Amino acid sequence: ELVCPPSWETLNYGEKKRAANECVNGAERILAPRVESSLREDGTVDLWVDMPGVSKDDVTVEATGAELTVGGSRKRNTPNTVAADGASGHIGDTKVKTQEGAHHDRMVNLRYSTTIKIRNTMDLSRTSATMEDGVLHLAIPLKPEVAPVRITVT
């Protein structure tokens, strides 16, 4: 749970703005993940969806018609002390100043969501998905070609 700063006088403008936004909006961020794609010679489309900090158990992939909706969430970590250089490695991380004046690094709740239009020649039912190091890989094959059928007229 986010606790608003007890004393605004100790914060600079950027800290006040960030703290006010978190108090009003909560500590969740919603982002559209970065998506890269490529086409294989056999027609399979590969999609790579970047969702740093998201585990495979927190990823959802749903196909509806010609749309593929991808989402994922990252939960807030327990606060811990910031490194001496103040370095932070995740999108959405913030530093929170406590009443004692110590800085803590807190990973905010973060949700990714995007909807991707898929050509009707792609077979979403045979899509494979793997998640590794915060990158979701989707391989979407072409639908098998259907041989023409000759219909006899009687």
UniProtKB/TrEMBL annotation:
SUPFAM superfamilies: HSP20-like chaperones. Gene3D superfamilies: 2.60.40.790. InterPro entries: A-crystallin/Hsp20_dom, HSP20-like_chaperone. It comes from Compsopogon caeruleus. CDD domains: ACD_sHsps-like. Belongs to the small heat shock protein (HSP20) family. This is SHSP domain-containing protein. It comes from the Eukaryota. Residues 26-154 form the SHSP domain. Pfam families: HSP20.
